[in-house]
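Suppose a colleague, Dr. K., hands you the sequence of a protein chain of 402 amino acids and asks what its three-dimensional shape might be. Before reaching for any lab equipment, you can write down a predicted structure in token form. Begin with the sequence itself:
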Amino acid sequence: MRFTNTLRVALRALRRNTMRSILTALGIIIGVGAVITMVSIGNGAKAQVEAQVASLGQNVITVFPNFSSSGGMRSGFGGAMTLTVEDADAIAAEVEDVDGVSGEVNDRNQILANGLNWNTSVKGESPDYPYIRSWPIAQGAMFSDQDVKSLAKVCVIGKTIVEQLFNDVDPIGQTLRIRNLPFRVVGVLSPKGFNIGGQDQDDVVIIPNSSHMKRVSRRANISTILVQASAPEKLDKVKQDIEDLLSQRRKGREPDFVVRTQEEIAAAATQTSKTMTLLLAAIAGVSLVVGGIGIMNIMLVSVTERTREIGIRLAIGAHGRDVLTQFLIEAILLSSLGGIIGVLVGIGASEFVSYYNGWPVLVSPASVFIAVGFSAAVGVFFGFYPARKAAQLDPIDALRYE
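The predicted structure, expressed as tokens, is then:
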């Protein structure tokens, strides 16, 4: 029997029991739809995290303080606080393929302006900071190297500070007070929104790091060092050069710093979303297996119901492989059709979740092809046993079956 005839017989058998065929495919539809939806939500969350990491700047390397050791006691990560402005200056002067360096000081302070007050993040940075973080100045300008050298009392503020303290006036040239010290506003950063941790990035005041250390926080060391490499392919080399330089400056002492590239930070930030995506996809994949078991169950019932039909076909010249092919085609058609409908259901469910909950979703072509391919494989796997059982029926016993 030719394949086309076998296909025609299989389609006729499925149409003869339309409702049962639909209910059989329902398990696959639900399974594929669930997989597509869960993976889309996970991919959307991952893409959002990656976009937020990318918004922190391109080709960025961050030097963090590590632990410190004194009298046999060791502090935790970040407890050393031995990074200095001189370390940042050395990186800028001696490491090749570096486009920008900013020694960073972080603190929170109550600020006052126009009779209003607000608690915010006050950062000490170098003039390279907006360039490193890909954060344009919307109004005014960034403070200069001369401002850093002279410990100038100038600042650049975020959009949230404008809204809270200068909502009705032009902030440029206005004065705000940090620890009762007057700082003149010379620039306003463009809006950036919330970061990965849900913190408002626009809720910030940026002042020269020298002014922060000498006038505001009264500290001798900086918190971190931000470095921008000239190109993505230079990241690893620049990272290694920074580690070598800082180790050399410490003259054999135990390293009190950790150097991380932006890719490493992004990988750590997206690891949770990757794990959740795999977990959700695995849970949804269980329903695919359940759907496959449903196909096998219905096909076994079909073999029993059509025993006489199979016996007649075998008696008039059909081969066992023709019967095997017919039942395999029926199983594959059920699972493949369920897979295609499931993809449409999954895409629709993803858009529904995105519209009503505001969650980012990303339907990737790879997940669609994998889901449809897996559903077809489920049809082959769970349809083979019933098809083989039908092909091995004895024609005489089949014709006697009541």
